[in-house]
Design brief:
This protein is α/β, with parallel strands linked by helices and about 350 residues long. The protein contains 14 helices and twelve strands. It is elongated, with a radius of gyration of 27 Å. Keywords: DNA-binding, Repressor, Transcription, Transcription regulation.
């Protein structure tokens, strides 16, 4: 069996093997492999080393190279549950595509909210001397930043931490609320209800501010009685149905698609048709819900893919700096048949 076949199917090829094949020192091989600046190696010797590498099928040890030069082509992503949340999982997809575009590989740790797992994941990434870390949550909220994240460049994705000094890439909740309401105004509605969440969050305040902004821009008076609080689930939308009908609204902006699904059920029980009797717009664009309701639900998308991609660009310094270090990503309208 030839030396090449022995190495390909047996023990890994080492620099010592390359040195023996090329009749040079191990140090010379290391200088060539790592393209060491200032190394005085003749062109003929360099060529022999490359021929030996090709012949024996040598592959560099990426981690060893990382440790020698103090940096790597890895970017870490630590998340609580986005990998198991289908629509939020697009954050990983966006980050992965953007990282690859710029020559980096994404190392993903999905911790499911386990503090010990999170600490271990961050420590492992720091040991690998990653370029930096994206720290992401599956819904937009304020967080306490793990202390170890301050040991490397870190960007928060779909979350933020006031006073931490870390840049945050988050959905523009106010713009999204305004866009949702404008969809209904453009369709000719004047009396528009808003089913808002009962959960304190940027989504609660931001989407309400956007709703009010759209009404003001259209010179429609804000009526507080048209803002109906509900738990942000299907049951919340269903239970809000009576209040919606009593309000005299002809259109409803729902805090999320699950709420809209519950409202659909409640309206159907009352013999009302969407959109003929009541136009409905949701938020999130959970396609497993929105695209499969009857009629399909017009909604506003949470831009998960772009959140991940933008997080990578911010980490690599490819986005213009923001004074408050908050990068707002637009939430686009997704038009279907419920308006």
């Amino acid at each position: 069996m030839s030396r090449e076949r022995q190495h390909k199917h047996g023990a890994p090829v080492t620099m010592r093997d390359i040195a023996k094949e090329a009749a040079v020192s191990v140090a010379t091989v290391s200088h060539v492999v790592n393209n060491k600046e200032g190394a005085r190696i003749g062109e003929e010797t360099r060529q022999r080393v490359h021929e030996a590498i090709d012949h024996l099928g040598y592959r560099t040890n990426a981690l060893a190279k990382t440790l020698s030069v103090g940096s790597s082509r890895f970017i870490g992503l630590v998340a609580d549950a986005i990998a198991t949340t289908p629509f939020a999982g697009q954050i990983i997809h966006g980050a992965q595509d953007e990282a690859w575009k710029h020559g980096y590989v994404l190392l993903v740790a999905n911790t499911e909210g386990n503090q010990a797992a999170e600490n271990d994941a961050i420590a492992m990434m720091l040991e690998h001397q990653v370029k930096g870390i994206l720290y992401s949550t599956w819904y937009h909220r304020e967080i306490d930043v793990p202390e170890s994240l301050h040991q490397t460049d870190t960007v928060l994705v779909d979350c933020f931490s006031t006073g931490s000094g870390l840049p945050a890439v988050v959905p523009n909740e106010q713009q999204g609320g305004k866009t949702a309401t404008e969809e209904l105004i453009t369709a000719g509605h004047q009396r528009i209800a808003f089913i808002n969440t009962t959960t304190p969050s940027p989504a609660l305040t931001g989407r309400l501010a956007g709703y009010r902004s759209a009404l003001e821009a259209a010179e429609i008076d804000f009526d507080e009685s048209l803002v109906i609080p509900a738990v942000p689930e299907q049951e919340g939308g269903y239970e809000a149905t009576a209040a919606i009908i009593a309000s005299g609204a002809t259109a409803v902006f729902c805090h999320n698609d699950r709420v809209a699904m519950g409202l659909y059920d409640g309206l159907r029980e009352q013999g009302l048709d969407v959109p003929k009797d009541m136009a409905v717009v949701g938020f999130d664009n959970q396609e497993v819900i929105a695209a499969h309701l009857r009629p399909p639900l017009s909604t506003v998308a949470l831009p998960h893919y772009e959140l991940g991609a933008a997080g990578i660009r911010v980490l690599l310094g490819l986005e213009p700096e923001q004074d408050d270090e908050m990068y707002l990503i637009e939430c686009p309208a997704i038009r279907r048949q419920s308006v």
